[in-house]
Specification:
It comes from Champsocephalus gunnari (Mackerel icefish). With 459 residues, this protein is mainly α. The chain has 14 helices and 12 strands.
């Protein structure tokens, strides 16, 4: 029944022309928003005159104001009724809220219009009286209607209700550096009086300087890691092909030797497989770590770019703290990839073994084992590592070395040969050293491929 007798306009505050927030009734009987009447009286405070804006009745001293509970409940019921009416009208017209797909088209920091039905458009202004955000089309009533022209419009602000001071009902446009919190202009003169309070825009500019530095560091680190990841993948591909080729040639060459060399073949395959598995496994772990770090850096870079485009100062300040933290150094130090990674020297050494006798097999096997173990695919530096041009790119530090020291005792061939009597058998055959010419009675000759390799090594 009351809904038929009373309209929403009859409950409006005469000052802001909207439903009152924290309604109070002054001695003459007229009701206002507590903030509106306090603002009105504060302008006339020096004169010592406190009058009603409607009937002009004066009061002295200044009346004390208390919240009109009954009127507040009636206003709240009116608000709920208006909201339900809007919902029913929206359902009858078939208009729905914007789909998640449409929202994803807008930036994650964009403020959407609260009045759009269906596809929501980006807001251009937010109203502190209506507590809503409006697009260009829905903002027109605020420009054309006299009752709305006095409303205070600000830049688009998301979650506007959460950014209103709960005590003074003003927008929190300041940041208290001492208390690390957002405050309104009245808070700066009361609870936060004497504190270092600056506007959110000024605070953002300070934080933005820090973020710009962090973004530069992040971008540089991203470039370095991307290049390292590219080099690692290229090295792994080349090294894998080289390892496969060495494995194939090892089987082909060692299959031509006598039974005593079969033991050598087994040992070499074991060393190569173990070294390849260990080194490639380690390389894969480093590659996985690099990929994870590059993904995190890209994500951080995109979040910084999106946040820098955000026009909402409060949202910016709330979000930038996590992005402005110093970058974690991580467990993985800098990676320097050996661009010339290859097992080719190992394959050459294996081809030389075919021309050697059993007396030097143990010595050659020790040398080859050391060469395999000394194969360096990459090196892990530290934060103070030199630049790429000044780094060490030697991939196989052990290859070509004439020293006999190795990381572990090399396996021997003689033990197996003695057990099976192969040592004596080899000595009775056509066994020659590198400098001994082939027997004239032997008409066999090296294969063209082997001869070509020898010529390349000699040159």
């Amino acid at each position: 029944m009351s809904a038929k007798l009373w309209t929403e306009e009859q409950f409006n505050c005469p000052v802001c022309l909207d439903l009152p927030n924290d309604p109070v009734t002054i001695p003459c009987g007229h009701s206002y928003c507590m903030a509106c009447i306090n603002d009105y009286w504060s302008k006339n405070d020096p004169k010592g005159v406190f009058s009603c804006p409607q009937c002009r009745q004066s009061f002295s001293p200044k009346p004390s104001l208390s919240r009109n509970t009954m009127l507040a409940e009636a206003v709240e019921q009116l608000r709920k009724g208006a909201q339900m009416a809007d919902v029913r009208a929206s359902m009858r017209s078939g208009a729905g809220v914007a789909s998640s797909k449409t929202k994803r088209k807008l930036s994650s920091s964009a403020v959407l219009c609260d009045m759009c039905k269906g596809e929501q458009r980006a807001a251009v202004k937010s109203c502190l009286v209506c507590m809503s955000s409006f697009c260009e089309a829905h903002l027109k009533p605020h420009k054309t209607k006299k009752s709305l022209s006095k409303h205070e419009l600000i830049a688009p602000t998301s979650n506007l209700a959460e950014k209103i001071c709960t005590e003074h009902k003003y927008l929190q446009e300041f940041f208290c550096r001492q208390c690390k919190m957002f405050v309104c202009w009245l808070c700066t003169s009361n609870q936060h009086k004497g504190h270092e309070c600056v506007s959110t825009k000024v605070e953002r500019l300070e934080k933005q300087k820090l973020m710009s530095e962090m973004q530069t560091e992040n971008t540089q680190r991203l470039k370095e890691r991307e290049q390292e990841l590219k080099d690692m993948k290229k090295m792994m591909e080349v090294t894998k092909r080289s390892s496969d080729m060495v494995h194939d040639d090892t089987e082909q060459v060692l299959s031509e030797l006598q039974r005593s060399v079969e033991r050598l073949q087994e040992l070499l395959e074991e060393v190569l497989d173990q070294a390849s598995t260990q080194k490639m496994g380690h390389a894969q772990e480093v590659t996985d770590s690099l990929e994870a770090e590059v993904t995190e850096l890209r994500k951080r870079d995109q979040e910084m770019k999106d946040l820098l485009r955000c026009e909402d100062h409060i949202y910016y300040l709330e979000t930038c703290e996590s992005l402005c933290n110093p970058l974690a150094s991580g467990d993985l130090p800098a990676v320097v990839v050996n661009p010339e990674a290859s097992f080719e020297p190992v394959r050459d050494a294996i081809l030389d073994l075919r021309d050697k006798v059993e007396d030097i097999c143990n010595q050659e096997l020790g040398k080859i084992t050391k060469q395999v173990n000394d194969t360096t695919l990459f090196t892990l530096g530290d934060a103070t590592r030199p630049g790429l041009k000044g780094g060490i790119f030697k991939l196989f530090s052990g290859l070509g070395s004439r020293t006999t020291n190795s990381r572990s005792p090399a396996p021997t061939v003689g033990a197996r040969a003695d057990r099976r009597g192969l040592g004596i058998g080899l000595r009775n055959q056509d066994v020659r050293s590198r400098d001994t010419p082939r027997d004239k009675g032997n008409t066999s000759s090296p294969r063209p491929r082997d001869r070509q390799r020898r010529e390349e090594r000699e040159t």
